[in-house]
Amino acid sequence: MNAPELFTTLDENLINENLLSYYEAIENASQDMLAAARSGDWDTVVKLEGACAVLIAQLKHAAQQRALGPDELALKSRIMQRILVNDAEIRNLAEPWINDLSRMVGGTTDPRQMH
Description:
This protein is mainly alpha-helical. Helices cover 77% and strands 0% of the residues. The chain has 5 helices and no strands. It has a single domain (3-113), classed as Flagellar protein flit (Methane Monooxygenase Hydroxylase, Chain G, domain 1, Up-down Bundle). Helix 2 (12-38) runs antiparallel to helix 3.
């Protein structure tokens, strides 16, 4: 389903539901990416990353139609936090050399603090 198909009605509840559906779909894709990364299936990670990019572009378009309410914003925040946790673990799996390098120099495993 693409973004134009989502907005054939002006029903605000439907718009909010679809906006949250985008966030949930992105979260599901990030969970699938994490599972693929854990198994070393980097081709699937890359494909899912592309799917996420499409979903994000569609979400940006859909979000221009109407803002989320306070309850929806709270749910969006929780979903985004889970996506960020997944992303951090994927990055750790994709770049284990950062942790190895840090151990070698006796420093932190946080790449932001390695400068």
